[in-house]
Amino acid sequence: MGRTTCQSRISRFCLVRYANIIEGIGIGHRGSHIRVWAQPRKEPNKPLQAMENIALAPYAWSLVLAGAVVVLSVVPLGAGRSKADFSMADLAAPRAMFERLPAWGKRAAWAHQNSFEAFGLHAPACLLCLVAGPNSPIASDAITMAAAWIHPALRLVYIGAYVGNVPPLRGMCWAGGLLCTGLLYVGGLRALLAG
Known about the structure:
The protein contains seven helices and three strands. By secondary structure, the protein is mainly alpha-helical.
């Protein structure tokens, strides 16, 4: 750690000069001397940093894909509304037309609403894993990585099973998606507490 002493007062030149070559500045005084000390900047290891970011990619992709599933859940709902003769007048009260929807259209509306609820649980779990960081055990945990990839796929199958009225498959997809989210919470919390 290098040290430099500036007599009497800190000159602007001294601070600016050191601020350009250091990461952190410490300023203190002892008697009539003011001391400025610092550590040299360390250049980040770019290939290593890229590898660390790749380790967290499943959690980021899971978040993006889960959001895409919520958006895609609008497709069967829109198809159901078109079968119910949706008109511009229905925009004043879109929920009032629920009774006019066909049976599969009602299930599409419920699947769409449930997609928001599932995303509300899953998104914080993904963010927790991302916050845990690349140096944590979560970056190499195969179970949580698999759970991150499987969740959006299960939610997509869930929507099809709900609209198609296949209760056993729908229930398994719902439970599997919830289990995947739970695994992400456990893995993320374990990584934060360990690190």
